[in-house]
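In this supplementary section we document a worked example of the pipeline. Step one takes a protein sequence of length 372 as its only input; no multiple sequence alignment statistics are reported here. Step two produces a three-dimensional model, which step three serialises into structure tokens for compact storage. The input and output of this example are shown verbatim.
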Amino acid sequence: MIGFFTPRYVKEGKETLHGAHKMLAYKRDLLTPADLEAAEALIARLDQALRGRDPKDAEAASEEINRFFAKRFPLPSHPEIRENVEVFLVAIVIALGIRTFFLQPFTIPTGSMQPTLNGILVSATQTPPPNLIQRTWDLAVLGRSYFRVVPEVDDTVMEMRDVTRFRFFNYTELRCAKQTLLIPAPATGVAKTFGIQPGVRLQAGQAIQGYADTGDHVFVNKVAYNFRDPRRGEVFVFSTLGIPTDENRVHPDGPSQYYIKRLAGLPGDTLRIDPPQLFINGQLAKGRGFERVMSGTQLNPDGTYRGYANGPFLLTTPDSPFQLPVKRYFALGDNSYNSADSRYWGTVPQENLMGCGLFVYWPFTKHWGFIK
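The serialised model returned by step three reads:
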């Protein structure tokens, strides 16, 4: 209420004083000794005028201070553009800092963690894609992309492979004898859903239609392992550097990838699988994730993998327990029947750990929320 009755020249004078002090603090090293002395004299004059309640002298001193700093530090052209660019750059720096040190976004590429986390899922439909409004809504909320590809002529698939267009859009490229078709879905999903593979005959006018649901997008907590040890049963992310995964076998000099699995064993733990049960140090594994897998719906009856012909094959029988070495961790996929994990390519070195899975931030399905 007191400020309401304060004279205008006093309010403006105090704002000018505050700005002059800040400018002097920021730009002191850029002023000559003579300019520095002049600035301090102007500030003292304005302060004295305000104390003496001299409106004319206060207004004159304020104008003189504004002219003084405007002459020596003129505003750049289009200051609003500069301010917007600065805000944008600061936002980028903050985002990169968070990504580097705190939270790392990660996309689930495969189905090895189902039903906890979804990879890219491809489904066939009997009807064409819905209208534009529905497609836009489904893309924003569910991460669902519809497609309908129609061969123009009868043809035979010669080759199918994953390709990327414009660095962001992924497709399955079907190279046929007479035409090339692009389906906006991964090749493994297309092959499994539609039975398409090299040698398959495509009929003219017979549409390949359906939709692809994007994999879950999660935040990985990169800070947690700096303050606590990894916890048995949690979902964690790690680098495949030095781990004999299929990708590293095919491309030994290629960049390492990041995998997301459930942490089943800590250094020193002894693991044993008696399908469908996992035992850790002689005790039945506890926790929601383990219990869901041990329900029997995800495990192969004999505890092995489908489709692998070589590799360590750890924990393949109830009579083959495995004790983890020092600084080594055991990773298992919740979709155990279709998961290439530590049973196939061995343990994860401690230095490869990135962090624990924290939160599914997109799409907005039943998986949205904290990861369990």
